[in-house]
Design goal:
Blueprint: E1 28-33, E2 39-40, E3 55-59, H1 66-70, E4 101-104, H2 106-112, E5 118-122, H3 132-145, E6 150-154, H4 158-170, E7 173-179, H5 184-192, E8 196-200, H6 204-214, E9 223-225, H7 231-236, H8 239-248, E10 256-260, H9 265-279, E11 289-295, H10 300-307, H11 332-342, E12 346-349, H12 351-365, H13 371-385, E13 395-399, H14 424-438
Parallel strand pairs: 5-13, 6-7, 6-9, 7-8, 10-11, 10-13, 11-12
Antiparallel strand pairs: 1-2, 1-3, 4-5
C-alpha cells in the first residue's frame, strides 16, 4: 500500500524542529478512494486527488473479539475497536449515543401479514432523538485529533440538532447551515443548544454546495464540516447501527433490512458493518438482502434502480420527508451497488403513504417515528404487496428519528377523539360515537 500524506486544514502547533504529532485514530490506518483505490494518509480530506472519488477509512482490525466489544460501555463506544477513533474517545466529552432499542414488532408484522420475525431498530432513543448523534460523535472525535476547534455541517434537520448539541456538551463552537424551510421542531431545538445557526433560502443541495465553497476560506481554517471534509470519519459512525443489530440478535445477521435513503450513507454502512463482522468471524457470514426506501417527492435513487442505471440523476426535492430530501445523494450509486449485490429493491412512497406509515407504526407498536420512519414502514408494506420482500424471513426496519420532530406532517390527520364539556354524559356519548364510527 502506498500512502500520500494529506495535510489537514488545521493541525496542532509544534516546535520548529519537532516531527508533527501523529493523530490517534485507533485501528484506522489510511483513507482510500472508493473509485480508483488510491490511498492517502489520515487527515481532513474527503475527495481523491486523482479522480475526485469519495474517500473511505481503511483499517487494521486484527485484534477484535466479541468479548472485547461486550466488555465495553453501554453505548456506541463499545465498538471503538472497529471505528476510526482513539480507544479513549468515549471518555472525552460527548453525547455517548447508541445502543438503542431493537423492538420486536409482532403487532406490526401481523398488520402487514408477515409471518417471520419483524424488528424495529429505534434510533429515536439517541440523545437528540435521531441516528445522527452516532455519526457526529465519530466526526467530533476526528475533529479533536486534527485540531479543528469548531464543528460545522450542512443539514436537513437531524444533523443540525446533533452537531449543535454535541458542541454544547463538549464546550466547542458550532456552525450549522440549514435550508430555511425546515420543520420548526428541528430549527428551534437546534437553536436552543446555542451556537451559530444559518438558515439559507434554498434546498439542502444548495446548502451543501455553500459549505463546500466555504472549505478553504480563511474563515473556516479551524472548522471541521462533519459531513464534508470530515465525511470519511462521520460516515463510519453509521456502522454502529449494523453492529448493534447483529449483537442484539445474539451475534447473527437478519435475512432482510429496510433502510431509508437520504445521502445513501446509512444503508451502505450497515452493509459494511455486517461484511466486517462476517470477515472477522464475529458473526456467521449468512446472506442478507438490503432494501432502500425513499419518498416519491425525492426519489433519485429509486428512479435509477428502476431504470437500471448506475448513475443517479439529481432531482429537486418536494416531500414532507425533509430529512430524506437530498436531491443529489453523495452515496446514491453505492446504495445501488449494495441493493443490487444483495438482491434487494429500492422503492418510493407518496407523502400520503408516509403519513399512513407513521400512524401504523405508532398504533401497532407505540413507536412514534418522524417522516423518515414513515417512509420505511410504507415502503415495507409496498415491498410486501409487490412480493419483493419475503414475509416469512426475519426482517429489521430502521427508524432513524423521533416523530416529535415532524408534527407538522400529521397535524391535519390526527387530533382529539372529541372535544367535550366537563360532563359524564358527554364522555359516554363521545365514546359511543367513536365506537359507532370505527366499529371498535
Amino acid at each position: 500500500m502506498t500512502t500520500t500524506p494529506v495535510a489537514p486544514s488545521s493541525t496542532p502547533s509544534v516546535a520548529p524542529d519537532a516531527a508533527p504529532p501523529v493523530p490517534d485514530f485507533g485501528p484506522a490506518t489510511h483513507l482510500t478512494c472508493r473509485e480508483c483505490g488510491q490511498t492517502y494518509g489520515l487527515g481532513a480530506a474527503y475527495a481523491c486527488a486523482e479522480c475526485f472519488g469519495p474517500l473511505e477509512v481503511g483499517y487494521d482490525h486484527s485484534a477484535v473479539t466479541r468479548e472485547l466489544i461486550e466488555s465495553g460501555p453501554a453505548n456506541m463506544w463499545r465498538y471503538s475497536c472497529l471505528l476510526p477513533v482513539a480507544a479513549y474517545a468515549g471518555d472525552e466529552r460527548n453525547l455517548n449515543p447508541g445502543l438503542t432499542r431493537l423492538v420486536r414488532a409482532d403487532n406490526l408484522a401481523r398488520a402487514l401479514g408477515m409471518t417471520g420475525p419483524l424488528w424495529v431498530k429505534d434510533d429515536s432513543g439517541n440523545p437528540t432523538h435521531s441516528f445522527k448523534d452516532r455519526v457526529v460523535a465519530v466526526a467530533q472525535s476526528a475533529a479533536r485529533r486534527l485540531g479543528l476547534g469548531t464543528i460545522a455541517c450542512a443539514s436537513t434537520g437531524n444533523l443540525a440538532n446533533a452537531v449543535a448539541a454535541a458542541a454544547a456538551r463538549a464546550g466547542q463552537d458550532s456552525v450549522v447551515v440549514i435550508p430555511s424551510n425546515l420543520e420548526d421542531g428541528k430549527v428551534l431545538t437546534t437553536a436552543a443548544y446555542g451556537g451559530i445557526l444559518l438558515a439559507v433560502d434554498g434546498t439542502y443541495d444548495d446548502v451543501n454546495r455553500l459549505c463546500s465553497e466555504l472549505i478553504g476560506d480563511p474563515l473556516t481554517a479551524d472548522w471541521g464540516f462533519v459531513n464534508v471534509n470530515l465525511r470519511p470519519y462521520y460516515a463510519e459512525g453509521s456502522k454502529t447501527v449494523g453492529y448493534e443489530i447483529a449483537e442484539q440478535l445474539g451475534w447473527r445477521l437478519p435475512q432482510q433490512v429496510v433502510a431509508p435513503i437520504a445521502s445513501g450513507s446509512l444503508l451502505t454502512k450497515v452493509d459494511k458493518a455486517w461484511r466486517e463482522l462476517s470477515a472477522l468471524g464475529l458473526v456467521e457470514g449468512s446472506p442478507y438482502r438490503v432494501f432502500g426506501a425513499q419518498a416519491t417527492g425525492c426519489s433519485p435513487v429509486a428512479q435509477a434502480f428502476r431504470a437500471g442505471h448506475d448513475v443517479v440523476r439529481p432531482v429537486r426535492p418536494d416531500t414532507i420527508a425533509k430529512s430524506l430530501a437530498i436531491g443529489n445523494p453523495a452515496d446514491g450509486p453505492y446504495a445501488l451497488d449494495v441493493v443490487r449485490r444483495t438482491g434487494g429493491v429500492i422503492e418510493d412512497v407518496s407523502d400520503a403513504e408516509v403519513v399512513e406509515g407513521i400512524r401504523l407504526l405508532a398504533e401497532t407498536e407505540g413507536v412514534f417515528a418522524e417522516t423518515a420512519g414513515g417512509v420505511v414502514v410504507a415502503t415495507l408494506r409496498k415491498l410486501l404487496a409487490t412480493g419483493a420482500l419475503d414475509p416469512a424471513a426475519e426482517t429489521v426496519i430502521l427508524n432513524t428519528g423521533d416523530g416529535l420532530k415532524t408534527l407538522d406532517a400529521i397535524s391535519s390527520h390526527v387530533g382529539p377523539t372529541a372535544t367535550i364539556a366537563h360532563d359524564v354524559d358527554e364522555v359516554t356519548a363521545a365514546i359511543a360515537a367513536h365506537h359507532a364510527r370505527t366499529g371498535a
